[in-house]
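Person: Please comment on this record:
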Amino acid sequence: MSGPTTLEYLILQSALLGAEAALRAAREIGDARDQAVRDATHRAAQSLRMREEARAALRHLATHARQLETALERLNALASLHSQDGTGAVVAMPARPANATHESLSAYAARLEQALEEARARLSAAAARMTKAQAGSAGAEGLDRLANPRSLDELLDAYLASGRSARDDARLAERRARIARLLAPLAAGESVEALPADMGALLAELARPGEEQRAQAVELELQRLVARERTRREAAARAQGRARELLSRLDALTGEDAEVDAMRQSLELAAAGLMELTEQHEARAQALAEARQAAQAEAVRKAAATVLEGTLADLGFVVEPISHTLFMKGGVAHFSRPEWGEYAVRLRTSPADATLNFNVVREAGATATDAASARLRDLRAEQTWCEHIPRLTQALEARGIRLKTRRLLGAGEAPVQVVPAGALSGLAKPAADTRAAQPAPAAREAP
């Protein structure tokens, strides 16, 4: 049994928008419309999966490109240290792409790999010259260890190997321990490979035996540079995190939007460290996300009104025109069935707490009857409405509006509200032969 009923609603966006498209496209009632709803929903889900797969591929490319950049920066720093004029072996970094398309990132990665090959060749040539010019030099093997360190220990071993001699082992070992402590904040994962060139120059100087006082001064400068680099990396990590958060907000948007797609590409570059996320860029991304989210939410709520009206009609109800603002500003609508006579169901929405309230109403003066008969007819009307609630709930959930009971009174627990005569005039009047074929449920006699 059902008296006044309050149902909490949850709008399932992808299913709802597919249902709305089908309801607008097809006016006939039956299996064809339901199949159109399922097809539209499936297409929306498939489109989302394809976009997510494409985005994952782009992120992989962007991350790979950043790793290649780090490797080239490292080789250029070593080339500067070991070339005769300090610059002759350096290979220019290719220009970064302006957008994050698959084609542009693939081409950029290819240019980086070509530059890396050239940098390795120049560094090998420098190592060969060092081997000939200096007996006992680390040569190509030492430079290779510097160019591709797998850990902080290996990096320091490579730097110190070139200056080590039996007499200096103890002093350099002590110095090495101090350097390791200084570099510890930067020694996680790939960070060792990305040491700036000025820090590499200080490590190279510390690798050579010399006065301890001078070494201490160099260590102080290295400590300053480590603090600077740590601050820079922390800021970069925060910026990349903000870029990922903004991407998540834009990813929640549906539909095709050229401006949103362009912003996504920029944010992908920022999230991979291939572009600086400036305050202006971040503000534009936030404003764009907020504007599109608001527009999309409004479109979804409009679609919900369309789906609700269409679903009631599909189930055989006569429905007052439902305002497209019903799920935005709230409001009231009535629906009935041809056989219900003076009875209808009043629907009231409350967007603030996401609820739909249903209660049976009766138009005043429609039938002259005594109080006992009126109560019996009211009870029958509420029971009849109760029979339709499961079908309505199932149909709406299939189309993207999930309902959950928050309040349910039994039939007869609260009096049926009487509305003024003419209050239900917005409902189309049934034809006379229809009324005769389907007598009003409130007129049935009690068993």
